[in-house]
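Q: Got a minute? One more chain.
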Amino acid sequence: MQTIYTYPGNPRVQRALIAAEYNGVKVEVPAFQFGVDNKTPEFLAKFPVGKVPAMDTPQGPLYESGAIARYIAKLNASTQLLGSSYYQQGQVDQWIDYLTLELQPAIVALAMPILGYAPFDQKVYDEAKKDLLKHLAILDKHFLRKTYMVGEQITLADITAATALVFPFTKILVADVRAKFPNVMRWFETCVNQPQFSKVLGKIEYAVQESKPAGAPAPAAKATEKKAEKPASEPIDLEAAPKKTVTPYDEMPPTTMVLDSVKREHFNVQPFNKTFFDTFWSNFDAEGYCFYRCQYKYNEDFSLFFLACNLLGGFLQRAEIMRKYAFAAMALTGESEDAKPWVLEGVWMFRGKEINPFFFQQVDDAEGYNWTKLDTSNPADQATIKAFFQGEQVDGRNILERRYFK
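A: Always. Here it is, folded:
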């Protein structure tokens, strides 16, 4: 049994409670009167700083919200809330440090005057909002190519970020502002609609109008301006109109299989839909799509595992132009992260019956791989495809790191 002492609604406790839901850890949160209970000799004997949250564990006392959340996240290794590899664990720590040191100070600076805990200062408030929007732009760029912050499942990094963003999304940032960060909102919706999140956070009600701090000036009335009418006789420059980029894939015959629907079906539960391939092949359009296996040509050059991970990530980032035309599972395989050799390989599903030269023209990294077409009617090739997307091994090699292109 773990016991957390805190005042009601403390957002710094939410990430620990959500981690507890994922890990099946029972946490008791007794009634607590801040300013009274944390001043007692008994409390101070265990928690000398006298702050909350603080926690009693079977091993002894623990305080600081980040330490408490990490402790609970470690209590069930099978959920991999701190990452599935040493590299991913570093990434989780990286994001948590970034969120704690960069994002959260901006949110706190906005929240304190709104909640009445600090006097309103227009300059401080404006700078904090500017910082918040800057960090949301950074996150939005990250989620352009990622479903989660690290790897292919929710980690403590996602839990930390989502709980931090609840306040600005529900109190400050209205719909037209949130719409500027579609990738963040997609990720946020994915997180907060998980049962482990909703049990702690409840239903998220987004801000309809911005909450104003006490003492903030009322917005000035905008002067009504009559827009100059454009002369009806002014010619329209058709050549200046933006033209849609057409690729060879856009000119292919129609297909009975919608790629976006395939991707959603594979990831409709996390980390993936284990029954996906039970029906996939019966619906597969072999006239509209093909599968290729690829293997990096220079695996012997890898000296460190994280460098191989970087190469893998860079390849997928630079393949962005293929987002509407391909679906892939790439992996680093081998005995362990600490033992060479490592093999960078994967399978790709492309639009069309053959791999199109357009792919190699647009994605330079692709030339560094050997590509072999797979027979989608062959059970052995079907098994290889499933292994890359969902398995733990490929050809007897352990999948040490897997990333999807989706």
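A: The chain has 14 helices and ten strands.
Q: Perfect, thanks.
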